[in-house]
TrEMBL record:
This is 3-isopropylmalate dehydratase large subunit. It catalyses: (2R,3S)-3-isopropylmalate = (2S)-2-isopropylmalate. PROSITE patterns: ACONITASE_1, ACONITASE_2. Its EC number is 4.2.1.33. It is an enzyme of class 4 (lyase). Coiled coil: none annotated. It comes from Deinococcus multiflagellatus. Its cofactor is [4Fe-4S] cluster. Binds 1 [4Fe-4S] cluster per subunit. It comes from the Bacteria. Pfam families: Aconitase. Catalyzes the isomerization between 2-isopropylmalate and 3-isopropylmalate, via the formation of 2-isopropylmaleate. Residues 7-282, 290-412 form the Aconitase/3-isopropylmalate dehydratase large subunit alpha/beta/alpha domain. Keywords: 4Fe-4S, Amino-acid biosynthesis, Branched-chain amino acid biosynthesis, Iron, Iron-sulfur, Leucine biosynthesis, Lyase, Metal-binding.
């Protein structure tokens, strides 16, 4: 029996020629990604046990990104803990405030993470990096501590779900709509502890930013990771970051690999989709109901990239956000913020009445810079709409593509972005 991409990577990193789903393995980690929220807890565990060491300071990436710049004294202390540890241990790759942004998007653009490698982090959306043909997953602070100390993590080899997306989307339909459609079909636990492998001619034609959106949301279906095989698009992306094919290993699923589930999606039949509260699988067609919104949020590790900001600008250009709607746009990294400024996108947002914020995860999980109040209704390009996720438990969160968020901000209620072409 052949192996899937995920199985091959895990076999190579655990000293096995062959692994099967359900097998327990001790897996070597190529990279550990740290931020200021979950890492301090892991460091305390190590300190309390006299295990305060780092397996390799050159294989750790640290990016403060959740509550930055610090919103209060507690947040400042967490940031200080991460930064002092970085300095003490000589962590080579530290992307401080003003030089980084949202950790997952920062990492994907560095060229550090390569195809065929493994990555763990104390953050559920670490699966984002699977778009590079890598095995990337979030772990708890205890496993994070083990990875920092030993460079190894225990895994149960996951089963794999094959998602085959064929055809091409209608104008106005984005990768976010595709992944929301898939999660709607399979449910919020439909890929529980599985690797979600994306294939098909739609995926073949998709750029890397779109692929990152797909793999980023694997956790919203219960997945262990999302993954896309390496192809010319991946190779070109790595080459643009100075990484040549001899610096990484490509893994491809065998023709006789075994899949737990196969999901078939006709991209041409997918419409702009919105996940209603309070779960990402509660998807409906955008504009099905006239739901008034008070807030519109564009950002997060799912949809704060330059292509997302271009989609928003295309709709907002020459228009004004509806009275009563507060719109916040958060470029995912400092580099994306700068590029958006150079392209004139930030001016479009400001002219439309939106607030442009600094790179941060803050609003996405209700920490700061856009916390929702009682009974607020937010249309968001983020990845999670659980009760209390972005602020007050009574607030309503609707997940959508950046284009749908922009259209809804203009209308004042959840709208189909296909109704808004670029303004003359």
């Amino acid at each position: 029996m052949g192996m899937t991409i995920a199985e091959k990577i895990l076999a190579a990193h655990s000293g096995h020629d062959h692994v099967v789903p359900g097998q327990l393995i001790e897996c070597r980690t190529d990279w550990v990604l740290c931020h200021e929220i979950t890492t301090p807890a892991a460091l305390r565990m190590l300190e309390e046990r006299g295990m305060d060491q780092v397996f390799n300071p050159d294989q750790i990436v640290a990016v403060p990104d959740h509550s930055v710049p610090a919103m209060n004294i507690k947040a400042a202390k967490m940031y200080q803990k991460l930064k002092s540890w970085v300095q003490e241990k000589g962590i080579k790759h530290f992307f401080d405030v003003g030089r980084g942004g949202i950790a997952h998007v920062v990492l994907e653009n560095t060229g550090l993470m390569k195809p065929g490698q493994t990555l763990v982090s104390g953050d559920s959306h670490t699966c984002n990096a699977g778009a590079l043909g890598a095995f990337a997953t979030g772990v708890g602070s205890t496993d994070l501590a083990g990875a920092i100390y030993a460079g190894k993590v225990w895994f149960k080899v996951p089963e794999t779900m094959l998602i085959r997306v064929t055809g091409q989307t209608q104008p106005g339909v984005t990768p976010k709509d595709i992944v929301l459609e898939v999660i709607k079909r399979i449910g919020a636990d439909g890929a529980n502890y599985m690797a979600m492998e994306w294939v098909g001619d739609y995926i073949d034609a998709l750029d890397m930013e779109g692929r990152f959106t797909l793999t980023n949301m694997a956790i919203e279906a219960g997945g262990k990771t999302g993954i896309v095989a390496v192809d010319d698009t991946t190779r070109a992306y790595m080459a643009a970051r100075g990484v040549t094919p001899d610096q990484y290993t490509e893994y491809h699923s065998d023709p006789d690999a075994s899949y737990k589930v196969v999901v078939e999606v006709d991209a041409s039949a997918v419409e702009p989709t919105v996940a209603y509260p309070h779960i990402p699988s509660n998807g409906r067609v955008a504009g099905s109901d006239r739901i008034a919104v008070t807030h519109a949020y564009v950002g997060s590790c799912t949809n704060g990239r330059i292509s997302d900001l271009r989609d928003v600008a295309r709709i907002l250009r020459g228009r004004r956000i509806a009275d009563g709607v507060q719109m916040i746009v958060v470029p995912a990294t400092q580099a994306i913020w700068k590029q958006a400024a150079q392209e004139g996108l930030l001016e479009v947002f400001v002219d439309a009445g939106a607030s442009v914020s600094y790179p941060s995860c803050g609003a996405c999980l209700g920490m700061h810079s856009g916390v929702l109040g009682p009974d607020d209704v937010c249309i968001s390009s983020s990845n999670r709409n659980f009760v209390g996720r972005m602020g007050d438990p009574s607030a309503q969160i609707y997940l959508a593509s950046p284009a749908t968020v922009a259209a809804s901000a203009i209308a004042g209620f959840i709208s189909d972005p296909r109704e808004y072409n670029a303004a003359d």
